């Protein structure tokens, strides 16, 4: 890697030099064609070692029910972001996930199941942990709000808020939803008929969840004082909430006025939680408790969250659209109150639906993620979720479509392409890579922007295809990176899938298996160029897909003979790796076919 930039530079210089001295070109050329060396739009090496560790968080999951596919989606997005940043060179990229274990919802679930709350939490928290394991979620800590360091962090944070004068006690009455763990204003309440009982009841207009009228004395946080500071913060950081629609929504919410927030419940009502420091008769509101998990991870209050080696603040917090108010209004206000640095970005995503309704335990339309992974494999499910899952709009979970997505993109396009290119009896990838590494004429031929003289007329369409495909590959990594910078992993992965599909067409239309044995030297050269570019496509795409499908892409890169050290983002560029193509499997009469990267699904539709 040390010599990579140098190597690339000298390669481009060599190309330029060769283009200027026509004797180096193998085939006659005229000056009417523009020729220039392959272009790169970003430096090959980037030093991220001095950078703050990239810190990404998932929401922590309620333990009142088992995990479902919606939870898996959130987890996969965070894992992809962590792995992507590692790919870029941020080796200390850190991912936090865990479980949200206090509150009325858990207390009631435990009462209903007739077990003590801690037992329920232990059992169900373990299920989320197991999900992380089977889904290959590379977390750095699995936090539980019942962990002692977290309780200490909440205790300290409360005292600091109080000390800073942001907490006061007052009588509170309003509609509380246990399911959503929040109070709703009167304007957001609907009176509806419950079809199952024939009785009327009050529900939240937004979530449809039951609400109950409560009257109690509790502690409040002076949220109303943060309206202007929040607006200013978001005006100064217009990308802090993605996608844009949700930023617009939150700006409107803040502009419409913020009321002080109730941040405790009487302990006789809510027993399962952290006691308010200095007042045992009150329990800390579960959302204040839960949100602080993100800063517990940074070692708060023992470690200085402002020191350069701190992971604080989060670079990206991934959340579903249903919990955006808690995260983008309450949470920054709590941090502002203590002058702590704010999260840099919130990636808010849409929901998975089943039968047109949000997948949720209370609706009963959930998909068991363990079964889904068992059925399709972990990487295909991860890929499907990111490729099809909604960032802006909800997505409908559909087993038939998972199979189609697998067969079309992964099996037919990606897997098939890999074996056709790397496992041909007629041409060798290594030979093509070596040509590129050592033959200046080949490099020159690869650098044309328009078909040169020798590749005109009957060869023109082949050459045009090569030029177009090379241009596509020249921008692939940067385009994926631009999407991941937003971040929009869906756009990134769809773009990469598009490159796979275009490479298939390119390879298919250029018939290198036939032309590589042609008597016509020009056709043979065009076939070599096609093989080289196709191999480069599969290599680059596999590097870029590692964060999405870590297991399968490791296999793919092994199959291509790509060195472990050559699998970082810097290598996802045309011509960046000259060492691969030594087949990890050589065809023999006994094993004439490559092992399948994406085998046939056991049960199809
Ligand atoms: N405990 C809170 C989060 C506290 S974070 C300080 C919570 N838990 S949850 O278990 O209900 O949801 C966890 C995450 O899963 C949320 O981001 C939520 O949006 C997401 N999903 C729950 N159902 C979902 C779908 N049907 N589809 C996509 N994501 C879904 O909220």
TrEMBL record:
Q: Which domain of life is it from?
A: Eukaryota
GO function term, MF aspect, one = ATP binding
GO cellular component term, pick one = mitochondrion
- A GO biological-process term: methionyl-tRNA aminoacylation
Q: Which CDD domains match?
A: MetRS_core
EC numbers: 6.1.1.10
User: Coiled coil: which residue ranges?
Assistant: none
Which keywords does this Swiss-Prot/TrEMBL entry list? Aminoacyl-tRNA synthetase, ATP-binding, Ligase, Nucleotide-binding, Protein biosynthesis
**The reaction(s) this protein catalyses:** tRNA(Met) + L-methionine + ATP = L-methionyl-tRNA(Met) + AMP + diphosphate
Give all residue intervals belonging to the Methionyl/Leucyl tRNA synthetase domain.
54-421
Q: Kind of enzyme, top EC level?
A: ligase
Which is an annotated Pfam family here?
tRNA-synt_1g
The entry sums up its family as follows: Belongs to the class-I aminoacyl-tRNA synthetase family.
The protein's name: Probable methionine--tRNA ligase, mitochondrial
